[in-house]
Structures are given as structure tokens and as C-alpha cells.
Amino acid sequence: MGQVEAAVEFAHAQGPRFVEELKALLRIPSVSTLPEHAGDVRKAAEFCAEELKRIGMDNIRLIETATAERTGGHPLVYADHLHAEGKPTVLCYGHYDVQPAEPLDEWKSPPFEPTERDGNLYARGAVDDKGQMWMHIKALESLLVAGGGKLPVNVRVILEGEEEVGGEGIASYLRDHGEALKADVALVSDTEMFAPELPTLCVGLRGMIYTEIEARGARTDLHSGMYGGAAPNPFIALAQVIAKLKDEDGKILIPGFYDTVQVPTADELKAWTQLPFDEEHYRATEVGSVALTGEPGYSVMERTWARPTLDVHGMPGGFIGTGAKTVIPAKATAKVSLRLVPDMTPAESFGQYKAFVESITPKGIELEVRLIHSGDPIVVSTDNAYVRAAVAAMREVFGKETVFVRGGGSIPVVGDFVRNLKIPTVLMGFGLPDDNLHAPNEKFHLANFHRGIESIVRFLVGVGV
Ligand code: BES
Ligand code: MN
Ligand code: MN
Questions:
Q1: Do 48 and 117 lie in a common domain?
Q2: Whole-number pLDDT of residue 1
Q3: Same domain, 125 and 144
């Protein structure tokens, strides 16, 4: 029996154990954005490092990302296995941090108590990205066991704990030590399949700038009866500013914002029209709203993959308790992000946005526009042997041809891999459209966890041929 068959057989036999291990990782609430969870984030890093050691990887280390200029950074986890002389080096990337689980009362089972229901594993991070990252580690374990300690390619593993907060730690590590991750190809499993049973490679990601606009009015909170009518209200000011950023047709009104937006090629646009997509089903079941919004004349795929957008995520400030309090808050904040597409750049887009917001500052209000984090948009090449190896691997596992899609989400480090380190990157993800990423009841369809492991095993062997 060859290494592929032996590894696949091992993965199959050990599948239930792999899931139990993943559950243990999912019990660690590694929410990177909340300072009170910093210890949990580190625990998750250590959990991964220990497993990489146990399966026989070399040079395992936690790389600290906090610096004098930047406190609170979460560690990177590194491991390698560089004994396949003459073979390519694959850089396996994943992230072990997760988004906050709130609102908690919407979860059918608690977010950090992983629970199996109907062939799905429910937990925060199940699919984004602990479950998918675990597929990489389990594929490596299966190959190491099947190969008597040898891998068919050279492998470096890099795991980050700040993906969900912009990835500044890994970005600054790569600026200084990019050569430490030298590889021929990067494998990222942090995206979705277009539909169940449909093997999918993601070939583009949107970039983003995540911002806060802070509005200040009065010097202190005021009685809204005594001062209402004369004193500026920062929430009203923010509402007025936000309303001027985007029109009813979803067009962003920032001057110059669309100047560098690239239209996808005719071939890519044509391929998107051939994907199995039912807009009415998408509206009713995936989005679940009475209507879809966005730019007329663009398909949902174009709107979410190839057009920039702007969203408001929350407006902290004022009174949000139960009941009523008659106050004019002294200040209020809006968390606003903008998704970018090639060839927009975060620096230029943020400059345009900041200047425009400042130019429409309402009377009596002082605004501060802050950049929280940012990441580049990216389109990756599909014309290389690594993409062909991924397609061949998934053909074996799914018995189907792979579709190429883009993703509307962002993975900031992919831009660094592709542009700065010049590493061709394969985005082979196994999430499903209804996996509830970032939402209550996040899940991973366990069949896809197992098929993902087998696909990665076959991909690594294929790259080594
Ligand atoms: N895995 C997602 C990105 C993703 C999801 C890409 C689905 C394609 C399809 C990633 O963990 C993510 O959520 N990224 C954040 C990045 C941000 C905080 C910088 C995002 O897109 O909001
Ligand atoms: Mn992710
Ligand atoms: Mn995410």
C-alpha cells in the first residue's frame, strides 16, 4: 500500500479521535479581540504546539508578536519538517483565534461546549478556523504515520492568533523574518465551498479597512430635557455622517473611492454565471431578509466578491440598558468597515474615507477617524501546478470537478504571502454557506472535516510527485 492509501486509511480509522481532539481545542475560548481572553488565546496556541510536537514535527516554537510598540499581541505557532530532499516546501497556514460568541442566548448549545447534532459539530471556531486548521495537522499526522516518519514534501506550519483582529502580529513578523517561512506554495484552509458536495478553490479575497468614528459633542452627558434642542447629539451626528457614506443603491459616496476598482475578466464573470446559484433561495434561507440590497446591475457574486462595500458593526455609547434614560451622551462611536477589491489599497482608501468623513462633520461635533486594522485585497493565480494538484486531490475525494470562486471575506496574511513573499497560495476551504461563520450556531459539517483531511493528504502527496 502506498503512502496515500495508508494515510487515508489511517485518517479514516482515527476520524473519531480527530474529532474528539478538535472538541478539546474548541473548548478553549480563544477570542483574540477580548483582552480578558488573552490567556485562553495562549492556551490554544500551546495546545496546537503540543500536538505538532506529538505527531513528530520539528522545531516547534511559539513566536511572540508583542513588541515594545505593540502590546497584547498573540503568539504565532511554528513547526517544520524539512527532510524531503529535492521536494517542494509547502507552508500550511491556519488561525487558532476566534470571533466573540455573542449573542449567547441565540446559541442552541453553548459556543465553547462543542456539540454534535445531525452530522455537524457546533462551536465557535468549528469551521473558522480551528476545525480547518486541525485538518492540516491531522493530514500531517496521517502522512507521518503512513510514511514511517517521512513526509512526501517539506512542510512548514504557521498558525496565527490574531487573524480575526487584522493579523498585525504575523504581518510584522513577516516584514522582519519573511525568509523563515520560505516555501514554494502556501496552503490555506479558511474559506468555503460554494455549495455542499462541490469542491471549491477560492481565488480571491476582499481586503478591508476597519475603522472607528468617534463623535464628541458636549463636555459631559447632559439632561436631554434641559439641553435637548440646543446641544449637539453625537449619535445623530454619526447617523448623518453614515447616511452620506452610502446611497440607497449601495454605492459608496466617498470621492475617488472606485478609481482603482478592477473589473473581473470576462472569463471569470462568465464562470460565476455558471455556478449553481439561486438568488431567491440565498435571500430566503442564507440571508433571511425580506429583500437583498446592493448595487443594481451587479450579481450577488459580483457584489460580494468584486465590489467594495461599507458596513456598520456597532455604535457603542449612550444608554443601552433596559428601560429609559433621558440623556444626551457626550460622545458616541461607530465601528465602520470597508471591504476593498483589487487594485484598491488600504492606505489610499483610508485616506479618502477619512478626508470625506471629516469634510461632512456636523455642526457642533468633533470627529476622530481611527484605523483599527487593514488588509490588502488579493486575487491569486490559478495557472500553476499547485492549483492543478489541489484540483486533482479534490477530484479523487469528491468525484467532481472543482469550481473557482472568490470570497467576500478577508484573510490579511494571504496578501503578504502572495505579494511580498511571492508564494503562490492555494485557498482550499471546506466550510459550507450555512456554517454560520462569526454568527451564533457556527458549525462544521463533519463529513467535510474528514474529506478535507483526505484532500489535504492527497494534495501534499500530489505536490511531492
Ligand atoms: N475565514 C475568514 C475569511 C473568509 C470567510 C474568507 C469566508 C472567505 C470566505 C476569516 O477568518 C475572517 O473572518 N476574516 C476577517 C478578517 C478581518 C477581521 C481582518 C473578516 O473577513 O472579517
Ligand atoms: Mn478564518
Ligand atoms: Mn473569521
A1: yes
A2: 83
A3: yes
Domain-embedded: residue 279: no
Q: Which residues are catalytic?
A: 97, 163
What's the CATH number where 14 sits?
A: 3.40.630.10
Per residue in 285-318, pLDDT (tens digit) is 999 999 999 999 999 999 999 999 999 999 999 9
How far is Cα 231 from Cα 237, in angstroms, rounded to an integer? 12
Q: What is the DSSP letter of 264?
A: P
Torsion angle, CA of 11/16/18/21, rounded to 10 degrees? -170
Q: Which one of the ligands is nearest to 427 CA?
A: 1
Pocket of ligand 1 (CB under 6 A): 128-129, 163-164, 166, 190-192, 202, 205, 208, 373, 375, 407, 409-412, 437
Do 353 and 397 belong together in one domain? no
The mean pLDDT of the chain is 97
Write 267-275 long-range contacts (CB < 8 A, 24+): 268/404, 269/302, 271/403, 271/404, 272/299, 272/301, 272/302, 272/305, 272/405, 273/299, 275/194, 275/195, 275/301, 275/403, 275/405
- Positions of E strands within 101-259: 115-117, 120-122, 154-160, 185-188, 200-205, 207-216, 222-223
316 shares its domain with 214? yes
CB 169 within 8 A of CB 73: yes
Structural contact between residues 433 and 408, judged by C-beta atoms closer than 8 angstroms: no
Is residue 17 located within the same domain as residue 47? yes
Q: Final residue of a domain: which of 354, 375, 396? A: 375
State which residues form the domain around 232.
Answer: 207-261+308-375
* End-of-domain residue from the set 321, 349, 375: 375
Ligand nearest to the CA of 415: 1
Q: Grid coordinates 441565540 are at which residue? A: 106
Give start and end residues of each alpha helix (H) in 27-151.
38-54, 130-146
Helix ranges restricted to H, 55-199: 130-146, 168-177
As beta bridge partners, residue 366 has: 216
pLDDT tens readout for residues 10-61:
999 999 999 999 999 999 999 999 999 999 999 999 999 999 999 999 999 9
**Ligand 2 centre and the CA of 243: distance in Å?**
30
Distance of CA 56 to the CA centre of its chain: 28
C-beta separation of 197 from 398 below 8 A: yes
